[in-house]
Amino acid sequence: MSNQGSAVVLTALWSMQTFGQFANAMAACAWLAFVTNAAEKAALTSSARVRRLIPDIARLTLRFAALPGVGLLAVLGLCLVINPQPMATLYVAAASWSAMAGFLMTVSGLHRLSGRPELDAVAFGAVTIVNVTVTAATWRLGLSPTIYLLLQLAGMTVVTGLSLAALPRIWIVGPLSRRRLTVIFGRNASLLGLSDLMDVAAISAVFLVLMLVNKTEQSGPLFLALMVASLLVATMLYLLKLYQPAAAARLRGARGHDGRVRAYRLLGIAVGGGAACAVLISAYGVLHVSGVVALASSTLALCVLLAIYFGLAMAVMYGTFLLENTDSRILSSTSAAATVGALASAGFAAALVPAVGAAGGLCALVLSSAVKAAVLRVLLGRRHPELRITSTL
Fold it and tell me: Where are the bilayer-spanning segments (predicted)?
């Protein structure tokens, strides 16, 4: 919530061009939070079935999650020493902040697993204080986006370190896990995390295209629009994480059939909604080419497209969540569908953003969500042909 509030304040403090550069860097690097956070999902899914191995799983989770952040902090330190182009430092700082945010989410997830959920609230309460303090300093001192991010990153690193120290010592320091457990955990973390990672990469692709076509001044409005959706999506993700251990235990085996049926129907709704949007977007594009109407990234257009995208994204997200907790074999299908969706987002963005700007970016996200749902539905139908009959009853 504090990030959404500070973004609104920053639009008043910085010029539209400066805020656009900041928004572009943050959105383009947002996927890194899900690289470091992927291990948490695997830990929560595994904990319901192998409770005696929880200390080993916790150590693996921390090692997997810490590696990207540590590497990026080293690169950031090098950037600050050699003083490269300011834009490069801004993007590395944004990447480091995202990676550290993902690591803090992972540590907080382990606190919930250890039976101390209050530490989760304390950690993010402290991050909120850091955010408000740095935003206030930016208002008073006129800090640049790079300095703003460096101060945010420093505060979050301290909070993460304290949160890490509050975990059970055996979860942090201990013998190396058995090689077989490491391989299995690594595979599950990669596949479970890839779906969320590709969803965010689809958004990052839109901002990269905006940068490549020199439309970063439109990154600000798009970033603010997506911040509203991200707040709701983040809330849903958090609730699903709380429910994940129970869902993983409940949806395994024969009981997974009901979860697959619900997911298949949800994906069908998303495909239908995306197809309808594709028809409308195509018709509007024809009218634009014919000179009947002019396409523009108006506030109304962004709001309508944002609402459509949010609805499709939530349906696909919940359908994917149900499938991921039925059996591990489906993870290859959810990962493949998410990857295709991200590639589709980049392709649609390359086609639409140069002409329409931010509205074209949201159109790309709407269409790529439908593509992801369609691919996942086909793969699920091939793996479980009975769903084609059951879902129609």
Answer: 20-39, 60-83, 89-110, 122-141, 147-168, 189-210, 222-243, 264-287, 293-318, 330-353, 359-380
Alpha carbon distance 217, 167 (integer Å): 43
* Distance from the first to the final alpha carbon of the chain: 42
Residue 155 exposure: Cα atoms within 13 Å on the Cβ side: 18
- C-alpha 154 chain-centroid distance: 22
Torsion over CA of 1, 123, 73 and 24, rounded to 10 degrees? 0
Q: What is the pLDDT of residues 273-310, one digit of tens each?
A: 888 888 887 776 665 555 545 555 566 777 788 888 88
Opening angle at CA 152, ends 147 and 153, nearest 5: 95
How many helices (DSSP H) and strands (DSSP E) are in the chain? 15, 0
- For 111, other C-beta atoms within 10 Å of its C-beta total 21
pLDDT digits (tens, 9 = 90+) for 220-261: 778 877 877 777 776 776 666 666 666 666 666 666 777 788
DSSP string, 155-222: HHHHHHHHHHHTS-HHHHS-PPPPHHHHHHHHHHHHHHHHHHHHHHHHHHHHHHHHHHTT-GGGHHHH
d(CA 295, CA 358): 11
Gap between the Cα atoms of 190 and 193, Å rounded: 5
